[in-house]
Design brief:
This protein is of the alpha/beta class and about 240 residues long. Helix content is about 35%, strand content about 15%.
Length: about 240
Amino acid sequence: MTRILAISDIHGELELLEELLIKVKFDATEDELFLLGDYIDRGPASCGVLNIVAELQATGARALLGNHEAIMLKACRSGTPKAWHHWTSLCGGDATLASYGYHLDDFQDAIESNTLPNYIQTLPKLEEHLQLIETFETYIELEDAIFVHGGVVPGVAVSDTDPLQLIWIREEFHTGYNGEKTVIFGHTPTYKLHQDPTNYDVYFGYNNIIGIDGGAVFGGKLHALEWPHRHITSVKSEKPTSLE
């Protein structure tokens, strides 16, 4: 029987992703893989993670847009200093750029001359990955489940929902959802859902929601959820826990 596997919030942790795919014995010819977003930022190897995502997508995996990819796209495509600094200074975009071999200073002239989008188009690997991100979906809906980055708006059909809400929503969804379909999501580290700073395990909500963002980039865990059996395979980060 074909397995459906869901992984979310890798955040540049390439080694953990590779370890998890081996541990779960992922087989592209047998398994369906759903990647739920936030492949980049904060971690050490965002470029490498997107390379893997592209390879997985080419063999049938479905990749969703996370809020961090949306932030990166806005920063690089709009070229506005505000969007750029938001990404690079507040959201971990500086680590993403470093994974391509760039420093923030490399972009300063383009920012000052309002030519940032054009300049980025001359950087082959970065531009390639931006085009990859532009292909990502915002949700996957099955007969019994919805896979999404952030969550769904309670009482609103997912197909009628603003895509930005699907990647950004938090508390309104966590506490207000009561639909029949199980929603599998990332975006919010599970220690917050458990209300326990030491608990990075998958969160099974009372209201038919399953949070799988194990805070890998913060020293937590990277999870793979097998649906519909709800079997969990995890790998643990070896770096110190940091909830900042």
